[in-house]
Amino acid sequence: PATVLVFGNEKGGSGKSTGSMHVIVALLRLGFKVGSIDLDMRQWTLTRYLSNRAGTMKNDGISMPMPVHVFLSRSDKPNRQEAEAEDRQRFEAVLKKLRSECDFVLIDCPGTDTYVGRLATGYADKLVTPLNDSFVDLDMLANVDGQTGEIIKPSVYSEMVWEARKQKAARDGGTLDWIVMRNRLSSLAARNKQEMERVVGLLAKRIGFRVAPGFSERVIFRELFLRGLTMLDVFEIGDSGKPQLSHVAARQEVRGLLNSLQLPNRIP
Amino acid sequence: PATVLVFGNEKGGSGKSTGSMHVIVALLRLGFKVGSIDLDMRQWTLTRYLSNRAGTMKNDGISMPMPVHVFLSRSDKPNRQEAEAEDRQRFEAVLKKLRSECDFVLIDCPGTDTYVGRLATGYADKLVTPLNDSFVDLDMLANVDGQTGEIIKPSVYSEMVWEARKQKAARDGGTLDWIVMRNRLSSLAARNKQEMERVVGLLAKRIGFRVAPGFSERVIFRELFLRGLTMLDVFEIGDSGKPQLSHVAARQEVRGLLNSLQLPNRIP
Ligand SMILES: Nc1ncnc2c1ncn2[C@@H]1O[C@H](COP(=O)(O)OP(=O)(O)OP(=O)(O)O)[C@@H](O)[C@H]1O
Ligand SMILES: Nc1ncnc2c1ncn2[C@@H]1O[C@H](COP(=O)(O)OP(=O)(O)OP(=O)(O)O)[C@@H](O)[C@H]1O
Ligand SMILES: [Mg+2]
Ligand SMILES: [Mg+2]
Description:
The structure is a homodimer.
Chain A: E1 3-7, H1 16-29, E2 34-38, H2 45-60, E3 68-71, H3 80-101, E4 104-108, H4 115-121, E5 126-132, H5 135-138, E6 142-144, E7 151-154, H6 156-172, E8 177-183, H7 190-207, E9 210-212, H8 231-234, H9 245-260
Parallel strand pairs in A: 1-4, 1-5, 2-3, 2-4, 5-8, 8-9
Antiparallel strand pairs in A: 6-7
């Protein structure tokens, strides 16, 4: 069945939906069949991005590859346990269906701790965690001592991933490959960047994840949202004349991320 | 009693905790007595920032102004209604106490839809909503048509603020002054910036908020988190030699934000 890619990080605004959309389109452009699930049952950023894409296709009379997309709504049962049981049943049914039909299933998690977010992480073959280049974001992975720069202890999100790994192993003996992708890297700010690189490298060994090169801070990653496009689309649909230098660099960053995910070799 | 400032936006990572901390320190440095409440009952970013500050004071043997800080924990009652009743009772008791003791009470909300976040917004005299300079973030305030650039309808967060305004008016006839602060403004990317400026300006009139100048993308806004400092502290505690140009510009942005909040004139 399909490889399950989960974009997760409880820290809000780290780049989960942006990363999800770019990886979805990159896999589609390689010819794979992709399923996607939006678990952010209030913001719907990925769902909105895809519906903007459908709007552009209709409006401009063009065709672009689209994933098989599903968004779930929250159970409204007043009792927490009954609501969670219903959320689980809906999620597992959708995941089973998409895994049987697609090469890859990509899940975008909300930027907060939710029952379905934890559940989905326990099904991940690959977990991709975008991280702003900031010690504020790092704080969700581990507490770092402000005076010495040493790692004190893993924090709530890392502990959740540890639980998800155990669940997965117990269910089907599977493993979870955890990749942290640095996002919105600034072209300046050398000192902060180096210090983050050092601590993220230490943390990778200690709590068991790999570090991917990630994306720089580039306006192209966000300015096409309303039209549902990514820089992987603009050249193909003849939208933007000669490819600009920043588009080329951004496309390379998406390709770099895809390579670092080390996805299983499939023939589209 | 105190003026209540709420930093809120359901969009994750827009800059609520960063904005909160800088406004807290700016008010403290003006000599005001400030209370603060962290409603992000899982990430605790503001609480972590302040505990790092206390760590630096202890470690370096220096003294810096501190707010009267409270963090609440979530009720664990299994029934949603009972849990909300307990959350409300705790929050209202803390708010009442801080309002009687302080000049300003500042509340940092989580980046998601929570019962206490909505409750706190209904007590705001000033609501400050940081916004990344991105149509992805704007989507939480209003749905914009990707083809025409027109505003289709206000979205979930704006509707929540509308409800909160009604609640406040019904409770004590008070009004809520809503300020949207643009955050992480890039020094490049003119086209996206202008387009955002245009749409945010239209939206301000339509759904009733004011736009504050806000903060640029500057590493100084995030690199002092582990030591619990802001650029308003470094010169006072003799930490960084000659003030650097970027520090001066960042301090001016904080002062600009404080001015645009139009806080009631109080003598510290
Ligand atoms: N590499 C990048 N360059 C420029 N802007 C970016 C980049 N990555 C993300 N952004 C912007 O940063 C903001 C946060 O990104 P996004 O919404 O994808 O994060 P998220 O983790 O999905 O957030 P949430 O926690 O709310 O779900 C958005 O305004 C987005 O447009
Ligand atoms: N003006 C700025 N310049 C540079 N970095 C910033 C700026 N404002 C915020 N950041 C960084 O952006 C990220 C998000 O900011 P912050 O955590 O304050 O947002 P938030 O809205 O409180 O997030 P959450 O929704 O998770 O509570 C952090 O990594 C922070 O360091
Ligand atoms: Mg998202
Ligand atoms: Mg926060």
